[in-house]
Design brief:
The chain is an alpha/beta fold. It has one domain: Rossmann fold, CATH 3.40.50. It has 8 helices and 11 strands. Helix 3 links the parallel strand 4 and strand 5. The longest helix is centred in the middle third of the chain and has 13 residues. It starts with 7 loop residues before the first strand and ends with a helix.
Amino acid sequence: MDLVRKDETLDDLQLNGIYVIQKKQGFRFGVDAVLLANFSRIRSGTKVVDLCSGTGIIPFILAGKTKASYIEGIEIQDELVEMSNRSVMYNKLQDKIKFTKGDLKDQELLKNIGRVDVVTVNPPYKLKNSGIINMNDKNAISRHEILCTLEDVIKACRVLLKDNGRMYMVHRPDRIADIVTLMRKYKIEPKRIKTVHPTYNKAPNIVLIEGQRDGGSFLKWDNPLYVHNEDGSYTKEINEIYGRE
């Protein structure tokens, strides 16, 4: 079986020899997914579900960086699920990672997966009514709340998480009020927030948030993360996250 096709690339994560297959033209993982995987605290033996899994980047980083026992990615787009499962075969990680086609609004699907220790999610950021959208554009599905809303995502986390289980999400700072309100609505208590800034004198453009199912009310703000130095080079912390230092 030819695992990598002509319209695809095979990208080295520089992480325990793990590679990810991606389309040359189409949705490709970005810095936000890498930052979310690094922000997530995964203990040895943990079972993880990754919602809105896309190319599968978060499960592959977690497989390389942590001692999670099992990671299942849920993605609604057939093409991405099929491609992610070829990446699993390429890396011979069938005993550790699996990708399933499914809708996170499907309660039966979530219940069949069972309760897990951790849920990670890099959901669509943009509201459905923000800007012109081609409803047939597969990239738009990844970026706009066309097939699921922020509330759908947090509700799914509630269903999947064990008691005191943790969710980790990356989103945009302008949605923080919505995120915290919905987390509390579904009894997932915000526990830790980290802002990500393009450079030192710029406002944050990414926010990372950790929540605990039925957790007590105490919120910790992590030190902010800066992506670039003033000269445009990557900061030491970003280089460490990408394994360049």
